[in-house]
Specification:
Oligomer: heterodimer
Subunit structure (chain B): Component of the ER membrane protein complex (EMC).
Number of strands of chain B: 0
GO cellular component, one term (chain B): EMC complex
Number of helices of chain B: 17
Protein name (chain B): ER membrane protein complex subunit 2
Subcellular location (chain B): Endoplasmic reticulum membrane
Strand content of chain B: under 5%
Order of helices and strands of chain A: HHHHHEHEHHHH
Number of strands of chain A: 2
Order of helices and strands of chain B: HHHHHHHHHHHHHHHHH
InterPro entries (chain B): EMC2-like, TPR-like_helical_dom_sf, TPR_EMC2
Shape of chain A: elongated
Shape of chain B: globular
Largest interface: A-B, 31 and 32 residues
Strand content of chain A: under 5%
Structural class of chain B: mainly alpha
Strand order of the largest sheet of chain A: 1-2
Chain lengths: 247, 302
């Protein structure tokens, strides 16, 4: 049944716009709060820095391996992946401990908790506020047609099953803003802002093992690399260049 | 390394400011961002901004960054009185700051009070183990005092932690070359080539070191790296062209009695000689005869 529901313009004035404004303001507030809370512990861990640099160096070695002579490449490879004291070698036992260590280290745990809280609490509060005040009516119409599958997601508060799926509730407007305001925030607040929820959520999944796992990955890829010295090719290219120059 | 557009921008701003066209603050910001060392200009323009209270208030909170920049430039130009004044101003404003502490230690170093500066740097490092600038200043101090082996030691320790800092590798390579420790210098240049393989400067330096080390294998490698430099610079690099000629003649000398069958094809030498001749004719026509006689002597020795 594709009948056109006429939506009151008052909905737009009193629901959509205030909701967006409130979310932008909360985002800005969170940004400043996170900046205030962050300035306390700035000491970087020496081991983390060294590991990060080792990874970059190993990556450079892999990328430009063909530019250095074979002997130097081999000696560097041994240096990195040597069984006893190679830079990238991580014994099995240690790899598991990394995450446990991260949780037991008080500073790190506090840091993570703070970041989590600053993300979860405003989201929860705003969501509850939206549900309380703005539920039970149709808020907007999506301009393109959708399938019936989206009904449960987009029409939470509306208990009529015959309304076209394009008519959504204000909860879906909230979610739209949540994911969509990221671009706006990077315009207003500059590149680095704590409101990047989606990015943070993606980071959370791969957080724990970052250093030790990347070392192991680098070691494996380094072991795979075949060295093929590119310099003879350069010699021929130089010949061509000079020929062109001289002629 | 600065990109071409940024270099053009800096030069343009510099000429603009020199001719009295304003834009000093932008110039200073750009120099600070690109970490260039134009101390004389920075000092001149920075002083003009800082001594004019109207311009100073126009900058607002960035004033303190400007103080730091001009203080460092003053130390570089040996205007220690100015540097001392600015450091004092910064100390009053930020009494417990690490950045100002670093500047203070730099002032001690500029005044030549090595012991105090060493103590200041060590205490700064205790608080903050991982400040690369302090490590590097310690190396610079050791080098300025003539303690080259100390500089090497500090630099190696720094590079154990921060192994991606290619400026540090370059500095280490140059120190090794000055001490004639060519094998170690070759290692450093290899690191540089690994991190930035498209910069011809590193290929050229590596080729020079290999050529100096000598030995047939090294000479062959040096030949190849000179060739890669020529390729990367489009054939215009005079030093690389000369390098090819010298390498060819050296290889010829070494393989003089050997079996001519497994001699590699060293085609580049005559080509580079021709290229050199063309270049000299264009740029230094009165030296063409000298060039011709040198090349002839190289060929004759084979």
């Amino acid at each position: 049944m594709a009948e056109d529901l006429v939506l009151d313009t008052a909905i737009r004035d009193w629901v959509l716009i205030p909701l967006s404004v409130v979310m932008v303001l909360i985002g800005i507030l969170r940004y400043f709060v996170s900046k205030l809370m962050r300035s306390s512990n700035q000491v970087p861990d020496p081991k983390m820095i060294k590991e990060g640099q080792v990874v970059i160096r190993a990556r450079n070695l892999r990328a430009a391996a063909n530019f250095i002579p074979a002997k130097s490449f081999r000696s560097r490879r041994v240096y990195f992946s040597n069984e006893e004291n190679g830079l990238l070698y991580v014994p099995k036992g240690q790899a598991q401990n990394a995450q446990a260590q991260m949780f037991s280290d008080p500073n790190m745990a506090m840091d993570m908790m703070k970041k989590n809280l600053s993300m979860i609490i405003p989201q929860t509060l705003t969501f509850a506020w939206v549900n309380f005040f703005f539920s039970g009516f149709v808020a907007a119409k999506i301009p393109f047609p959708l399938t019936q599958r989206f009904r449960s997601m987009l029409q939470n508060g509306i208990d009529l099953s015959t309304v076209d799926v394009s008519y959504v509730s204000s909860r879906s407007w909230y979610f739209l803003n949540l994911f969509g305001l990221r671009g706006l925030f990077s315009l207003i607040l500059g590149e680095e802002n704590a409101t990047d929820d989606t990015q943070r959520m993606m980071q959370m999944s791969g957080f724990g093992f970052d250093p030790t796992r990347s070392l192991g990955a680098e070691k494996d890829s380094l072991d795979i690399v075949q060295h093929e010295w590119a310099l003879p090719k350069f010699e021929q290219r130089a010949e061509a260049v000079l020929k062109k120059l001289v002629s | 390394m600065v990109s071409k557009t940024e270099e053009d921008q800096v030069n343009r701003l510099e000429s603009q400011v020199e001719n009295g066209g304003g834009g000093e603050w932008e110039y200073l910001c750009l120099v600070r961002k690109l970490k260039l060392r134009r101390s004389y200009n920075v000092l001149k323009y920075g002083l003009s901004i800082l001594n004019d209270p109207k311009k100073r208030s126009a900058i607002g909170p960035e004033e303190w960054t400007l103080y730091e920049q001009v203080a460092a430039a003053a130390m570089d130009c040996q205007r220690l009185d100015l540097a001392k004044d600015y450091v004092k101003v910064l100390l009053e404003k930020f009494p417990e700051s690490k950045r100002v502490g670093r500047l203070e230690a730099m002032l001690l170093e500029a005044m030549g009070l090595w012991e105090e500066a060493e103590k200041a740097y060590s205490s700064l490092l205790e608080d903050n183990e991982l400040d690369p600038v302090i490590h590097k200043r310690r190396v610079a101090m050791a080098k300025a005092q003539g303690n080259i082996s100390g500089a090497i030691e500090w630099l190696n320790k720094y590079l154990e932690i921060f192994m991606v800092d290619h400026d540090a590798w370059r500095e280490l390579a140059e120190i090794y070359v000055s001490l004639q420790m060519y094998k170690q210098a070759a290692f450093c240049y290899e690191e540089l080539i690994l991190s930035q393989p498209t910069i011809p400067l590193y290929h050229l330096a590596y080729a020079d070191v290999l050529y100096t080390l000598g030995g047939l294998e090294n000479l062959h490698m040096a030949y190849k790296y000179y060739a890669s430099t020529i390729d990367l610079t489009g054939g215009k690099h005079t030093r690389a062209l000369f390098g090819i000629c010298l390498c060819t003649s050296a290889i010829d000398q070494l393989t003089r009695g050997r079996n001519k069958d497994d001699k590699e094809n060293l085609q580049l030498a005559p080509l580079s000689a021709l290229a050199l001749g063309k270049d000299y004719k264009q740029r230094a026509p009165n030296k063409v005869s000298m060039l011709a006689s040198t090349l002839r002597s190289l060929k004759l020795s084979s």
